[in-house]
Amino acid sequence: MTDFSATHAKFHIPDGVIYLDGNSLGPLPVAAPERMQKMMTAEWGQSLIGGWNEHGWMAMPRSLGDRIGRLIGAEPGHTVLGDTLSIKVFQALAAAIRMRPDRRVILSDTGNFPSDLYIAEGLVDLLGDGYTLKTVAPEEVEGAIDDTVAAILITEVDYRTGRRHDMARLTRAAHDAGALAIWDLAHSAGALPVRVAAEGADFAVGCTYKYLNSGPGGPAFIYVAPRHAEQAKPALAGWLGHDRPFDFDLRYTPGAGIERMRVGTPPVLQMAALEAALDVWDGVDMDDLRARALELGDRFIAGVEAACPDLVLATPRDHASRGSQVSFRHPDAYAIMQALIARGVVGDFRAPDILRFGITPLYIGEAEIDAAGDTLAAILREGAWDDPAFRTRKAVT
Amino acid sequence: MTDFSATHAKFHIPDGVIYLDGNSLGPLPVAAPERMQKMMTAEWGQSLIGGWNEHGWMAMPRSLGDRIGRLIGAEPGHTVLGDTLSIKVFQALAAAIRMRPDRRVILSDTGNFPSDLYIAEGLVDLLGDGYTLKTVAPEEVEGAIDDTVAAILITEVDYRTGRRHDMARLTRAAHDAGALAIWDLAHSAGALPVRVAAEGADFAVGCTYKYLNSGPGGPAFIYVAPRHAEQAKPALAGWLGHDRPFDFDLRYTPGAGIERMRVGTPPVLQMAALEAALDVWDGVDMDDLRARALELGDRFIAGVEAACPDLVLATPRDHASRGSQVSFRHPDAYAIMQALIARGVVGDFRAPDILRFGITPLYIGEAEIDAAGDTLAAILREGAWDDPAFRTRKAVT
Prior knowledge:
2 copies of one chain form a homodimer. Chain A is α/β, with parallel strands linked by helices and about 400 residues long. Chain A has 2 domains: about 5-30 and about 285-390, Alpha-Beta Complex (Aspartate Aminotransferase, domain 1); about 30-280, Aspartate Aminotransferase, domain 2. In chain A, about 35% of the residues lie in helices and about 15% in strands. The first copy, chain A, contains 13 helices and 15 strands. The first copy, chain A, has helices spanning about 5-10, 30-45, 50-55, 60-70, 85-100, 115-125, 140-145, 165-175, 270-280, 285-305, 335-340, 365-380, 390; strands at about 10, 20, 30, 80, 105-110, 130-135, 150-155, 180-185, 205, 220-225, 310-315, 325-330, 345, 350, 355-360. The first copy, chain A, has a 7-stranded mixed sheet with strand order 4-10-9-8-7-5-6, with helices on both faces. In chain A, helix 2 (about 30-45) packs antiparallel against helix 9 and helix 5 packs across helix 6 (about 115-125). Chain A starts with a helix and ends in a 6-residue tail after the last helix. The model of chain A has no long low-confidence stretch (mean pLDDT about 95). At the A-B interface, helix 2, helix 3, helix 5, helix 6 and helix 9 of A face helix 2, helix 3, helix 5, helix 6 and helix 9 of B. Chains A, B: Pfam families: KYNU_C. Chains A, B: One of its GO terms (cellular component) is cytoplasm. Chains A, B: This is Kynureninase. Chains A, B: InterPro entries: Kynureninase, PyrdxlP-dep_Trfase, PyrdxlP-dep_Trfase_major, PyrdxlP-dep_Trfase_small. Chains A, B: Catalyzes the cleavage of L-kynurenine (L-Kyn) and L-3-hydroxykynurenine (L-3OHKyn) into anthranilic acid (AA) and 3-hydroxyanthranilic acid (3-OHAA), respectively.
């Protein structure tokens, strides 16, 4: 049984803060500053260029990739780190559509994170030749899969509402129609058990700075199913995806399997922070985490619904249909969230009317859930959010 | 006049090491660990998600981009950080060829860094439709520019020999033929004065972990000439290049000017190290740096040629035709470099037969140049490199 009081102690949460925004940026692992100092002074400082060999920097995208692979149910050796999630979406899409050369449609849904849609839009615009991005409502994806679809591009958990797609079912529907399935795990990896291999995902991508706690700008990851690993053509054919990068050949030869999804020099400093963050996960069982997150989520929903009749639950109640966040709607959601943050309860706002709370059992327990609910209720009861200071939008939230 | 003894003190060079490999990975700025600790504990640790606003993380790709812009002669507001150099090459190429829709040729040369060629190869393979990458010898680029060429993709300074292209001349030749010029400044930024605006470059890209000393995996940069900034179409249409990323629109609208060359979440931790590294540059005049680098380079060439008759200079003697590194050829270059490193003089090897030495006046002076030459001469005189331990290739060099 996973000991969540032990994991809680492994994060730095500032005094007076209840942090329910780990679905946007995970908190600092206590061990990360020391790991980073070692990277800066002992590795970079002392080994200089030799660090690539002496400290295994070049291998980190694969070794850390496999540690994430465990959390998403990937076969060892088929997950690699690098770049940002948007770049990884581009890589997966470009590879997938070339595996279905007679088809021209990328199918996604309006609940997808906009950057995924933008990247697909950019790719089809670059390619021309009849390629299109078709976007339907989340509940209409399955019915829209037909033999024109090269790939579906689906984010498993909706970034606003926490609504969860059925990965096994949609993947099967895609395969039945001869299409490929690309899964964005931004709000899944580290949030719930994912089984990319067992459920047949063709490609999966995700980021590490949310539930995995790698810090701002931490690298993304990509998984390619073993059955495709030697066929996938890398559109972003960078030297570190070459079969022999240090031969400096003039022609590109893709590396073996997932290696070809590497592009440029990996972000070694960011990976040091990620390494410390992944150490926290070593003792965590994803089924334990899921059970705990649902229990805490239910508790939060019950508490808020009882005390805040003006808030409307945006997250599905059904466990199977939701991720690890709980969201409520209110016309003044922005101001309410600002008032909440001013009292030390940090969630976030998503346009137009969503109050979003990440339920992250690694460092959140009953006490935090209850205190957050009580604070939210007090703010609504007092009308404390109705203040010009809370209504002024910040540039970034 | 730039005070190079002052800049020398701002880098950590391990005891007993003469570091002539800053053209591969710059050394640790003394101020970087403390800046990183502040980022980790005070910014990420204490501000959590609020760091994006409170500490200006979201603005760093532009503000640090402009500090690099000064070093490459860019107009303020037209350089942005992010991703890796390979990704930035892809962005520049994809934008450029779409600005010349009737042309199908990307022209480069065999002296280019292979990743640039691979990225171009990946792009033309993705696009099909007659797009080709044409690669000629470096001295044949100018003659190969014709009205089929959409863009030339040229690395100013050859990563092996240090041979330098004439940016003004090739850019003019490209423009005369109606083509665009993309310059890779990997071995130029921080190595010599670059004048992207004055010399008419259409796009420029580069990395920060070499002469700019941002640490392993530091972010890349891209410059788009102001005259193209509102026309360039971003093929990698990520959300942070959107005009209003936090509106979460379902359709992509490119941001103003260089903003659209942003893709995903910026690497905030890597940028903290870069920020400390750029502080060192504040008092540095690029013309002073260039004069000093050439003086030191000449001294190294003279010393080595006098003492090591078996080494053949690979770098042009002519100042205008070389960058800030000095390279020699020898059939046993690999083993010689390993023997040299074992004695604390760190340069590097590039296949098949190049000994490469970065001349970086920020932390290298006459004493280091003379000691490096003496050590090299001793190794050759003694035949000390002819040892199986030095002949065994490492995976990464």
